[in-house]
Each structure stands twice: as structure tokens, then as C-alpha cells.
Amino acid sequence: MKVELQYLVVTATVCTLLFSSCCLNVSTDETRAGSGPGSNSPAVNFAAFREHFDRVYDVNSEEFHRRHLYYQVGDKNKRETETCRGGTVDTFCTLMNSKNSIQRHAYLKNVSLTPQSAQYGINKFSDFSQEEFKDLYLRATADRAPPYTGLKTEGLPAKFDWREKAVVAPVQNQQACGSCWAFSVVGAMQSVHAIQGSPLTQLSVQQVLDCSYQNKGCNGGSTVRALNWLKQTREKLVPQKEYPYKAKTGICHFFPQSHGGVSVENFTAHDFSGQEEAMMGQLVEKGPLAAIVDAVSWQDYLGGIIQHHCSSQWSNHAVLVVGYNTMGDIPYWIVQNSWGTTWGNEGYVYIRIGGNVCGIADSVAAVVL
Length: 369
Known about the structure:
With about 375 residues, this protein is α+β, with helices and mostly antiparallel strands. It has helices at about 1-20, 45-50, 60-75, 80-85, 90-95, 100-110, 130-135, 180-195, 205-210, 225-235, 275-285, and strands at about 120, 160, 265-270, 290-295, 300-305, 305, 315-325, 330-335, 350, 365-369. The chain folds into two domains: about 1-135, no CATH class; about 160-369, Cysteine proteinases (Cathepsin B, Chain A, Alpha-Beta Complex), CATH 3.90.70. The chain starts with a helix and ends with a strand.
């Protein structure tokens, strides 16, 4: 009984730490962890978690027991010995080898102790296994991009955010479909279209998903291959309302050339690793950028600035870089994700500038319309 009581005390303490929304001392509201519901959620047990995140699986079902297990103790990655063989020790292997979700959160939090650091804990993905999360959401592939050899832009502002110019569409939700690559490309296109003076219009992600034959729809794709397809075919993307998102791959719906839409004239794709200041210049000059990142640890992200624990070795997710801020102690990229507004900082993630954190600079594409 004494051992059980000690276990309950330790468990309660860990849960309290995971759900605390006052664990940061940050200088701006933007980088404050906890703008999403996971940070101050009352979900200290699985019943509360299900209610908070509107989970509807039957309590007597196999899915309920499986989700409860993932939420409570996580799962052992089935492919860990294959992926991490050879004695390699990195963040991916550490996370995948964590025996349970509490250990995973503790690991992430222990290396995130600097000011404004990212915070991790229970969020909308906490009843997913690590492998399931990776298979559903991390389906982007990165084509090797040439190193950037251009000049750096002089006189850049200390802070720049395309959202402030009303040319960034609201955060979308890809749902259980590996379509991040399409959301990233379409996000860049619709922003550049608005920057050029047209009304901000959400373009059809489903059209890219169904018709970009060089990619695999919900099973994954590449931003560069999608842009290549758009450039070569001069396919015009129609508004989302004409070709709505279904979160599943469908049959391509063709439109006549006379139909209105937005097409890609050209694009650039470069590796800015070691040259993130030049990447800032590209953002200011050309508009929001489509980037491929390592997002393995983002399953547990609540908010704040990611400064550690993601590498450039496991590019797996496409995002849209919409701005940067170098005014505080920790300069950071402002990145729009496609997992809905209940994730992260109301759908955004902040990544430290410098050091190519999460591989943010490895493969970065700018669109020309």
C-alpha cells in the first residue's frame, strides 16, 4: 500500500507539471506556450481527455482500449531497431524508444529549459501511438535542394510577419490525410497571389492532392514535385469552395483552360542551412515560404519556441513559413502548420532562428506567379 501511495503521488505530480499553463516566463504573448487547449486542459485522466477533445469511441470497443493504452503508456515503436540500428543516438531514436508518453514529455521538457522554450504535454494527439502519428501526419518527402548562392538582403526589419499584411489565409486542418505537402504549396500560392494585389482567396488543396500525379495524395508527397507539376502543366488552381477538401485522395477533376484560377509561372527551391539570414530576405522579398521539416517531436508540442530536439536528418513534414521575429532574446521563425487551431500556438509553431532547428532551412521553396 505504501508503494502504491508513493506511485500515485509521483503520477499526480507529473500530471500537474504537464498541465501547468504558468510554467513559462516569456516576454511576448505570441511565444507564450499554452494558447491551445492542451496546455491548460483539465484532462488529467482519460475520461476528461476524451470529453475535452471530443473523442467518441465506444468505451467497450477495441479502439477505446488501444487509445487508452497509447494515452497512458504510449507504445513501443515496432521499427525502432531498424530505424535506429548502428548505435546512432539522436532525438528521433530517443523519442521512439520512450516507453510511455510521460517519459517522452519529461525528456522533451528536460532539454527545453531556456527562456521562452517550447513546452510539451497532453494535446489532441495524445491518444495516438508514435508510429500512428508518424504514418498519418508526417508524410512529406524532401527532394535535395541546391545550396543558396545568392546575396543576402541588406536592411532587413527586425520583425516581419505576412499575417500583418492580411495575405495569409487561416490555419487549415489536414485531418487524417498526409496532405501537408499540398497545404504548404497552396498556402504559398494564395499568399503570393494576394501580395500581388488580388483578394486573399483560399485555393483548392484537394485539386493538388488529386491531380499532382508525381505525388501520392494522402500517402504523402513533395513540395518540389508539386511545384514542378504546377509549373509544367500550368494547371490553374480554383478556389477551395469550387473544389472542397475531403481529406482523402480522389479522382482528378479537370477544368478547361478558360476557367479562372491561379497558376505557377516559376519557383525556386534552395538549402539555406547556415544561411538563415538569407532565408529571411527571401521571405520578405518573395512571400511565405514552403519548407520541409522534422516534426517527430511535434506530436507533444503545446507552444513556445522550439530550440532543441529536432534534427535535419528526418525531414517528414511540410509547413508554411510566414514571418520571423529577431527582437527578443531568442529569434524565431513564425510557421503555419496544417493541424488546426487547437494545436500549438493556435495552429502555429515558433522555431529558433540559427542552427537549422528542425531542418527548417534544408529545403525551402518560394513561388513565382
